Amino acid sequence: MMRIGVDLGGTKIELVALSDEGNELFRKRVTTPRDYRGTLAAVVDLVEEAETTLGEKGTVGVGIPGVISPYSGLVKNANSTWINGHPLNVHLGEMLQREVRVANDANCFAVSEAMDGAAAGKSVVFGVIIGTGCGAGVAINGKVHGGGNGIGGEWGHNPLPWMTKEEFNTTRCFCGNPDCIETFISGAGFVRDYNVALAASGTLRAAAKSGVDIMLLVDEADAIALAAFERYIDRLARSLAHVINMLDPDAIVLGGGMSNVAAIYPRLPALLAHYVLGSECHTPVLQNLYGCSSGVRGAAWLWEK
């Protein structure tokens, strides 16, 4: 059976078609129209082009930067705001004349890495995307765990655990709440924290624009950058220990730009054990296998074997 996955992002729509074994058969991306009808048409055109090229019809799964409300059936919480308030799965299903499954893009990431990625074979997988923002998803036996409210995995909008007095009430998230995990462990949060420390130090140096800038300074043993990374890795450990204490997943997989920081992986195990109940923790924290392709592959895997 051919599986088609669509990653519906704010700037691009990407489609991949996978064989039953997970091999890539077709891939294409287009610019996202910034209106609802245009977005529907772009997805349908991509699906039809893939099927015409391959001479075969497939199942269709779509990852979105939001969720379908289990109560209203409408998209909510999407930063691609023009799809909010619409029954996206219903309209795409009518246009493509088949059922279309829609899930949050972070959940798609978790499913991808659980099916044939870094956590293949693990029963309970917590997938974390730490890029400009911070998202997460849960896959159980290769399937999305969306939860009764459709927000399973949205741990990034809980307060940073074990917060120090220096951290308390220092950030405000786009969701409207203070001190969300996202504001500390996202790539943007890492940069913000470093730049605040740089300004306070009085050091005459240009502000960092990315985590890469800071990690280059870490490699040079720069004191401000080293201290910022120490704060970052400790906050990441606290945030993931919070998940382990509640969910105790078989594996945690990291994605997004910060997942490429190699220094994270040897440091996390001891820090996690410090915060996890009982001071024992052997939960593997893994770098993703498929990188930026994981979301679109996970959308295809919304139709399980």
Explain what you see.
By secondary structure, the protein is of the alpha/beta class. It has 9 helices and 12 strands. The protein has helices spanning 36-54, 88-96, 105-116, 181-185, 187-201, 211-219, 223-246, 264-275, 294-300, and strands at 3-8, 12-18, 24-31, 59-64, 67-68, 75-76, 100-104, 124-130, 134-140, 143-144, 251-255, 285-287. The strands form 3 sheets. It has a 5-stranded mixed beta sheet. Strand 11 (251-255), helix 8 (264-275) and strand 12 (285-287) form a beta-alpha-beta unit. Helix 5 packs antiparallel against helix 7 (223-246), helix 6 (211-219) packs across helix 7 (223-246) and helix 7 (223-246) packs across helix 8 (264-275). The chain starts with a strand and ends in a 5-residue tail after the last helix. 43% of the residues are buried.
Salient structural properties:
12 strands, 5-stranded mixed β-sheet, alpha/beta, 305 residues, ROK_cs, globular, 9 helices
